[in-house]
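Pilot study result, target chain (358 residues):
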Amino acid sequence: MAVANATGVHSSGTKPILSARLLEDLQLDRFSSPQVRKDGGRKIHRVISIDMGIRNLAYCRLAFPDNWTTGAKASPPVLEDWARIVISRKATSEDLPSSSPASKVKEAFDPATYSQYAYNLVSTLLASPSPPTQILIERQRFRSMGGSSVQEWTLRVNMFEAMIYAVLKAFQSQNLWTGTVHPVAPGKVANFWLDDSDLKHSSPAAQALAIKPAKSKSANTKTAKIDLVARWLEDGSHFALEGRTADLGRAYLQKRQGRKRVMTEEKELRGSADTAIVPAEMGKLDDLADCLLQGMAWIKWEENRRGVLKGGLDALWTPPGKIEPTRELARGVPKNAKGVVEAVAPVKKGRKKRVGES
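Predicted structure:
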């Protein structure tokens, strides 16, 4: 299961099923796309990672060369865009004539309205001289925390998710876009980046502000992911910031450090491929963190997959020719994937343990 976790392969099922899935999925190149374009003589991948939502949809666009894992120095991805998009919001008095109180106008959640939202969003994301080669969409669940009921808001987000897939499929069928779409389970991303120690201890910023650690596991996970992205932004070596993403990164850190009112920019859909940049107060950080962690995990999974095919399981521990960066990205596996380390650790007789041996 540790190898599956390190390469983004689903880890459910019996050992024979998991072994067969690993052998099959490790042969698949996640970044094979006819949309990859050459930029300065190099093939450049552009991955858009979407954290689903209606009020708080967030996405990022990461760019990196095709051979980013080879050579003595790996090229860090470039964070070209990182934003939260307002898909739908409640009407306010500013949006309506004085004769129509906002309290009497209901927000629309019908399929016709959301199909237009989905088309506008996809058109906006693809309206670029360098369109994305891959789009990652956070997989939605119908139930949360094992509950038997299905919340109405959950159904709305699931409907919007399905419409985004439908619009992207239509663009592909008409050869308007030749990239690929991939669902990503949020649990796999969290398991890849976080271990138990991340969930038990509050961040230095939270300790300085005397913030009590969250009680639930989901709240602890959310806090840990926000703190992880903050450490990456402070370190500055995991990805390069470009353009307005640098401003958003600074606002992110200010918000995490406890400033009550931090102003930033937010995107608002106005129509097909038409997005307005509006000033807004920095709100929730978890959506921005989730989309970035999802994109970075996808890239890291592919790096680990290529490493396994080239150098076996040993490549998951010490990638050949790779400089050791900081702790989250230093090894080819997440910190909690101890099973991979045990799988390649030699025993006294000189034989290497197999995966699953105790």
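One observation from the pilot: DSSP finds twelve helices and nine strands in the chain. A full batch analysis is planned for the follow-on phase.
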